[in-house]
């Protein structure tokens, strides 16, 4: 199995097997819950087996009055449950908040053996990851933990985007990066008022034809997040870590949600956040390669033999580069099936 570190490793012919530091684990949906909410805590045993990652959220969407209850609620959930194959993550408060030090000290000390990944919000640059890295090393040593906690950054400030390559390579603990479209929109002073997804005003219009300047022209809505997701994917690929879409806040718009998730999947993301149970199946469907795509990929791989040269299949030219693309699809299917 591949680790996040070698997930994007070049598929060079004859290259030695990369060192497997961290086993690959599916993370198609990172399902958020509020541990300060008792009803949500009681649902954990039934929801955990349905998701790849369960995340106890301590940051935004948890009110200031509930920060301590959320932290203690997550400790309770971590101690009371065996998560099996499902990963347990947390999103701590931001590094400029009064809560983050207690978040890290309490969680690593109390349930450091149960947690897999610490998601750090509003990361501005590599210095934020270095700070968390050193703190984790101290807390892990004190708690006698043998498995290092991994770190995931949210890309949700203009300076974070400008520094994304440095963030991705800031520590061997780096597991991945998620887009945070809501905070990023505010940081960039975009004129939207929503969590992820598109906007009907962000469009291009076909050219006018003849006298008909206003009527009969088609508009196409554009993807507000294309640039950032593509940039994030490149930074993650360069450093061998995993890229993710983030939240899609219009829970009722399941069609728009699926489209947004699929754009991210096609561009290279391996998963997304899910904020409501209705989004879990959408994420599972989108971030698992479709059976027909896997069958096609295996056909190309079989036809390409040692992976060099060119063959025609159903009138389409295949060569070393399509072979590599097909290996990405087929290997992801194998890993998810393992
Ligand atoms: C997520 O945290 C976001 O701001 O979109
Ligand atoms: Mg945010």
TrEMBL record:
<protein>
    <submittedName>
        <fullName>HpcH/HpaI aldolase/citrate lyase family protein</fullName>
    </submittedName>
</protein>
<dbReference type="InterPro" id="IPR015813">
    <property type="entry name" value="Pyrv/PenolPyrv_kinase-like_dom"/>
</dbReference>
<dbReference type="InterPro" id="IPR040442">
    <property type="entry name" value="Pyrv_kinase-like_dom_sf"/>
</dbReference>
<feature type="domain" description="HpcH/HpaI aldolase/citrate lyase">
    <location>
        <begin position="30"/>
        <end position="194"/>
    </location>
</feature>
<dbReference type="GO" id="GO:0016829">
    <property type="term" value="F:lyase activity"/>
</dbReference>
<dbReference type="Pfam" id="PF03328">
    <property type="entry name" value="HpcH_HpaI"/>
</dbReference>
<keyword id="KW-0479">Metal-binding</keyword>
<dbReference type="InterPro" id="IPR011206">
    <property type="entry name" value="Citrate_lyase_beta/mcl1/mcl2"/>
</dbReference>
<dbReference type="InterPro" id="IPR005000">
    <property type="entry name" value="Aldolase/citrate-lyase_domain"/>
</dbReference>
<keyword id="KW-0460">Magnesium</keyword>
<keyword id="KW-0456">Lyase</keyword>
